[in-house]
Design brief:
The chain is of the alpha/beta class. The protein is built from 9 helices and 19 strands. Bound molecules: zinc ion (ZN). The site of zinc ion has 8 residues, from loops.
């Protein structure tokens, strides 16, 4: 289905769509074009929302990777309820907006939905109850850099009509990008800068430069959300960034330390269930003596995976927002996190 087809308002009234895909699949560009098409070329009104994780400068706008921008209301990702207040205000608008329109909204486009807290699901449900005829479009990354469902997009993909975009694998062989179309976003870490214990690969950056053995695939235990540094528009080269979000097909995809992280997580869970007692740090250290970044993995498990650390032992959190792993953006935890003086920090 062509995204521009959603400008046929009368035909799609009351429906909810999820537009998903990896980075560089032009989700935002297509959304901006649709928003413009409706506001400029039809008698209907469309509104865009983004959130404060995506919009680093807090300005009310969205920008596509290719640089096309559009006005959009920025709301806090951690408090999506603000969306309802703004919709109510816009519905009651008596003065003309930038396109010379006021009153009833027909389409609402939400950009970067993957970053919203799980409250977003209730907000969408509420909008559906109050404004049953509005067309809702939820765009966002389908998967995080670990190929897990990203934030609320797993929910969106199964509850809305899904339109899935793809983009081209940027891993290079003999100096040329692989190019295979894929759904997966990969995150690369600057090998020179972080000395991560992972072999670097060749990569084509978004400006077309070959970055030869300068970046490796990021490690499974790195934080889910790390905002990419802003591009240096003059240099047109991504080589100096700490991390790059890009695209990799399944043939080239790597997730270093996935098995080690999952083995340790499973060990703590099983030991805890078996003994009904917190698992001593010493026990974990003995069991996984040979696992190199053990401390980093334990920090990850206690900050993003429902394991809790206190009094030198690991237990399981009784309530963890986002029970299914990777299905929700991790709640901000401020206790029970294992924080040794890390020998090697990768953030
Ligand atoms: Zn590939």
């Amino acid at each position: 289905m062509q995204i521009s087809e959603l400008s046929n308002i009368e035909f799609y009234r009351g429906q909810t769509f999820a537009i998903t895909g990896p980075v560089h699949s032009e989700k935002t560009l297509d959304s901006i074009l649709l928003n413009n098409r409706i506001n400029i070329h039809t008698p209907y009104r469309s509104l865009m929302f983004t959130n404060d994780i995506n919009s680093r400068d807090g300005k009310d706008r969205v920008a596509s990777a290719a640089g096309l921008e559009s006005g959009a209301k920025t709301v806090p990702a951690s408090n999506p309820w603000k969306i309802l207040d703004f919709i109510e205000q816009e519905q009651a608008r008596e003065t003309l907006d930038a396109h010379g329109k006021k009153g009833e909204l027909h389409v609402i486009i939400f950009d970067e939905c993957n970053f919203y807290s799980s409250d977003f699901i209730d907000v969408i449900d509420r909008i559906r109850l109050i404004y049953s005829k509005i067309i809702l479009i939820l765009t966002g990354l389908n998967y995080n850099f670990r190929r897990e469902q990203f934030g609320i997009m797993g929910w969106a993909n199964s509850n809305a009509k899904k339109i899935e975009l793809e983009s081209n694998c940027k891993v290079a062989k003999w100096g040329k990008p692989c190019g295979k179309l894929t759904q997966y976003t990969a995150r690369f870490i600057n090998f020179e800068k972080y000395k991560a214990p992972v072999k670097p690969v060749d990569l084509i950056d978004k400006y077309g430069n070959l970055l030869k053995q300068q970046f490796s695939f990021d490690m499974f235990f790195s934080p889910t959300i790390i905002v990419e540094e802003t591009d240096d528009e003059k240099k047109k080269n991504e080589e100096n960034k700490g991390r790059i979000y890009s695209v990799a097909c399944l043939e080239h995809f790597q997730l270093p330390f996935e098995k080690e992280t999952k083995d340790i997580h499973l060990f703590i869970r099983e030991e805890y269930k078996k003994t009904q007692h917190p698992v001593k740090l010493e026990t974990v250290k003995n069991e996984f003596k040979k696992t190199q970044p053990l401390d980093n993995i334990l920090t990850f498990l206690t900050s993003e995976r429902g394991v809790m650390f206190s009094e030198d032992s690991f237990s399981l959190r009784t309530f963890y927002k986002g029970v299914g792993e990777g299905h929700y953006t991790p709640a901000q935890l401020n206790n029970g996190i294992y924080m040794p003086g890390l020998e090697k920090e990768f953030v």
